[in-house]
Design goal:
single chain, 480 residues, 15 helices, 19 strands
Length: 480
């Protein structure tokens, strides 16, 4: 797919389809141009309630008089659109038009500032890609070319680069677990080393053993697939230490281990590496944009499987930082993986750390399926993330890290236990466990268990992986 600019008018352009954004009640700009070219046809649609300016509301208009293109889709942007509105509106229109193969689709939105245009472009690219990676007949067909009626080439290019990162994350998560496992994921991550200012280091099992990553290795030992740890460094500016470290949980398949999940619970467990995939997608987008920052991404990659060599309830694992962990649930494995990866991260001396993980069902219970939970030991750092998410239209909510939750993690025979003492506050006790492995570093944990993967499609994006938080993290990196 190629995204580029066009200066052709709505009535003259030869695109296979045109998208026109509607904002507010008055017809101005491109909407007014369309109305004039169609002899008042757009106003008639609005008067009849067939076309609407509500965010994401779409109307398909076939063979409009006075227009060369055979299809027009109008899409609502709302009265005062924000970045999230623009992303969803463009995604909704693109998704409708991806129902069949098209050579080109042209977008005519009202004049937008750089941030809003960038979000709209990203939405148009993300909305047209589906999860149908292994279907002979596709569900969605991205157009060969997306055209934007704008003079802001930088924003259009940035929007496409961000979307490329989002879609890489989605593709990694949507791939089935016989395609994506620790070694193959690491191979995909290594390909980013071809990008400017990116270097990739892969730790194999021998290196992980030499580094005393006993917590991560404990989770991995039940699988025939060997674990990996990938370190992706982006050096867009010359600084000794990274300003930002992004850490991702990469459980490429989670059976639950001996604490076996029921069949229904396992069906979507290919998505348990969404945190790691988000790291890879973010580094790709940052590198493609050539941002002037120093960012490192780290992902711990394992399968959590059942065999005669699986780690057991009651086992005691020794993490890389020397802390011992009593295992009381083998399905609370993501925190065990992240424990060692976070300790590796500390050795890189980043200014700030953010980790992402599909960590707990408890966070879904607390916040639903569209909002990521935030947990922090540094309020000012967490505030930056909250502001960044709001700026791009992604939803987050901070949960407390009250000290008494740590009491639930006390073990009688080890330094820690890997689950809380009861079912309540499970997302918080999981975060408190991770806090034991970040020392005094500035750190925020993102539990993306809800929004990372959807069973069904939304108007602006196909079902499956969402690529959530890539846009937020890119926005954070811009300020580093």
């Amino acid at each position: 797919m190629i995204t580029s600019l066009t200066s052709e008018s709505i009535q003259d352009i030869q695109a296979d389809a045109i998208v026109v954004g509607l904002s507010g009640n008055a017809l101005t700009g491109f909407a007014a141009e369309l109305n004039e070219a169609t002899s008042g046809g757009l106003q008639s649609l609005l008067d009849a309630g067939q076309a609407k300016s509500k965010v994401g509301a779409t109307t398909s208009w076939l063979q409009p008089t006075g227009i060369q293109a055979p299809v027009i889709v109008t899409v609502g942007l709302g009265d005062t659109p924000n970045a999230g509105d623009c992303f969803k509106a463009a995604g909704a229109a693109a998704k409708i038009l991806a129902d069949q193969q098209r050579s080109s689709v042209a977008f005519y939105f009202p004049e937008l500032d750089s941030a809003l245009l960038e979000s709209a472009v990203a939405g148009s690219v993300v909305g047209s890609q589906g999860q149908d990676l292994h279907k002979k007949t596709k569900s969605l067909y991205p157009p060969e070319q997306i055209l934007w009626a704008s003079t802001n080439a930088d924003a259009v290019t940035a929007g496409e680069n961000i979307a490329t990162g989002v879609n890489l994350t989605r593709t990694l998560v949507n791939q089935p677990p016989n395609y994506i496992y620790p070694e193959s994921f690491a191979d995909q991550a290594a390909e980013l080393g071809q990008l400017k200012n990116v270097s990739v280091e892969i730790w194999d099992q021998e290196r992980l053993e030499a580094e005393n990553c006993g917590s991560l290795l404990g989770v991995a030992q039940g699988s025939d697939k060997a674990p990996r740890l990938a370190i992706l460094r982006y050096t867009g500016k010359d600084s000794e230490n990274p300003s930002l470290a992004i850490v991702g949980k990469g459980v490429t398949y989670d059976s639950g281990g001996l604490s076996l999940k029921p069949s229904e619970g396992q069906k979507t467990m290919k998505c348990d590496m969404a945190g790691a995939a988000t790291v890879v997608g973010t580094i790709k987008a940052i590198a493609e944009m050539e941002l002037p920052c120093h960012v490192v991404g780290l992902v711990g990659l394992v399968e959590n499987m059942v065999s005669g060599n699986s780690y057991r309830l009651g086992d005691v694992l020794t993490a890389r930082n020397g802390k011992t962990i009593e295992v009381l649930n083998t399905d609370a494995e993501g925190r065990l993986v992240l424990a060692d990866v976070l300790d590796v991260t500390l050795g890189l001396n980043p200014d700030h750390i953010v980790d992402l993980a599909t960590l707990t069902g408890a966070c879904c219970v607390a916040l639903g399926l569209d909002i990521a939970g935030l947990f922090t030991n540094d309020q000012s750092w967490c505030d930056q993330i909250i502001q960044s998410a709001a700026a791009v239209g992604e939803e987050v909510w901070q949960l407390p890290m009250t000290p008494h939750f740590s009491d639930q993690l006390k073990s009688k025979i080890a330094d820690l236990r890997n689950i809380g003492a009861g079912r309540w506050g499970g997302a918080i006790t999981a975060a408190k466990f991770l806090e034991e492995f970040v020392g005094d570093a500035s750190w925020t944990h993102m539990d993306i268990a809800g929004p990372a993967f959807a069973d069904s499609a939304k108007s602006y994006i196909d079902g499956g992986a969402s690529g959530v938080m890539v846009r937020t993290l890119v926005n954070i990196a811009r300020g580093m």
